[in-house]
TrEMBL record:
CDD domains in the record: GAL4
PROSITE patterns: ZN2_CY6_FUNGAL_1, ZN2_CY6_FUNGAL_2
InterPro entries: Zn2-C6_fun-type_DNA-bd_sf, Zn2Cys6_DnaBD
Chain ranges of the Zn(2)-C6 fungal-type domain: 13-46
UniProt entry keywords in alphabetical sequence: Membrane, Transmembrane, Transmembrane helix
Lineage top rank: taxon: Eukaryota
GO molecular function, one term: DNA-binding transcription factor activity, RNA polymerase II-specific
Spans traversing the lipid bilayer: 185-206, 258-283
Protein name: LAFE_0G03180g1_1
Keyword Hydrolase included in the entry's annotation: no
Amino acid sequence: MAFEDKQKKPLRSCVRCRKNKTKCDSICMRPGPCTPCSRKGVECVLDYVAPPQRSKELRVLCDSVDYVRESLDMLCQSYDKLLKEVGELPSPVKNVKCSSTKVLKIAENSFVVISLDDYGLKVNDFKIGKESVESAFRDFRRVLSNVLVLYGRWESGVEKGFVEGVHDEFLAQYRFDSLFRSNQLLVLLCILNFYFDVPGLDYLLLFDNVVDDYCTLAVDDYGSGRSFTRKSLAKVVVGTVPTSLSTEFHSELFVKRFTLYLFFHVVFYGPAHFLDSFLYKYIKTLENLRKKINFDRNWEVRWVNFYIRLFDLVEHGGGSVESWDKSNVFVSMVKSDEEVLGGGDLGKEFCNVVESVYSDLIEFYDVDEWRLAFVNLFFTQVVVLNLILCVNRCGGLRDLLESFSFNGFNFDVYEALTDELHDGEAQEYYLLQGKLRYVNKYVVLKVIGCSVGEHKATVSESDVYYMIGRDARENTQRRNIYKSSCKLIWNLYQLVVYEDMLSKVCSVIPVEWDPQSSLEACGLVAKFNDVRSKELPSILQDVDWVKESADDVLRKIHGVI
């Protein structure tokens, strides 16, 4: 019984002694039999222990690592070959050293990679220069500042000096490097998508997945959504905070920051799609869960609630005008607009009300080089149209109407590409995003590492009268009504410009309300796999009834309707 197999190790006792539980001296008597087996005259049999084996999970993991290593080697060889054919890439691509990189899942097999370095940001390997991104975030803070100051003017429950006390500290949170380092990636992407054309970022898909996943996770403690779990969603909404604060899903901090995240979309793009998501998905879910929010500790939620009620009143006629403070001149003006649209007459104090609203909103009439947020468009458009109404029906406030250099309609949005791509000239909107959908891998390799396009706005010097005259001359598709920021503006434009003015001198064909146009006027072009840019028959033709449920199809149809 010589032990020649080095791969196996014999046990100290033989099989018979272990079975009978007797003392065995096999380890001393080897290679001969042990004493008990020798006395009985039976064969002394030994068992052997096999060396430790890798577990099934470890074997699978090691195989996966080997597969990745082989795949990377093959990929590197392919890229080396391509680089030789293409030539040298721009030097910044090779030399940039990212200090930090974070990944956000948009959908199945779809991710956004964000890097922060000394030169600025990189999103999906496309550069956004530090100077450019800082300028965009300054504009965002300016928009938030105006919305915050206006809240202090119009909300009767706000104590005097309150807004001044929270203003600077609140706005200081919204710097691109702070949001990145604190891991508030959803808000960061929300702002970047508005100001920049990031190729490969299907933003509407991301937004809808976030809202739908929230609604799913809120009622299912242990479930997971399409892109997020409770933990991962809380991580990118709340971000990194002091340990004394709870970052759990549905914690007070989570509700506050998620409310702000959804509200920023309404500030940027307006009520089309985003207000419905806020009211009929998010708020309904909170109500069904009977989730209570402490408004005293979270003034930001009170602030958001004020504007959501205001825009709901404007867009849907939600709530009652009587529920608002009678001193709110804007609500009084909207009430008068609704009466006039219904065939009523203007009140005696209408011009005074419009003049007061004009004074309250004066900060929103100043525009920068960046494209215009919904709040700037809406407040400017509603004041200008009401001033025209005053001039036409009351004969007053003409001087205020003629003081506007930006009247809410004399603008165009374009994409400014960098010298790397098109010598810095203005291009068609979302040009880079569109090109990336169709080019082959060779061209993508040439584009990767370049800077993204910037969403800019240009304001013409034409006045209100030129705007009205242009609508009399232009064909239907180029009319200024398509720049309406919401349904109220659309209806007011029909009344004030078409019915009160143009119908007196020419034949005017009424234009049907188109929420898609409002969404695009506020900066979100719905193209490239977004169902809202399709007509209803096209949606039904494209349905995969095997993979898509009836609810999925209804959601698409609702988006178009």
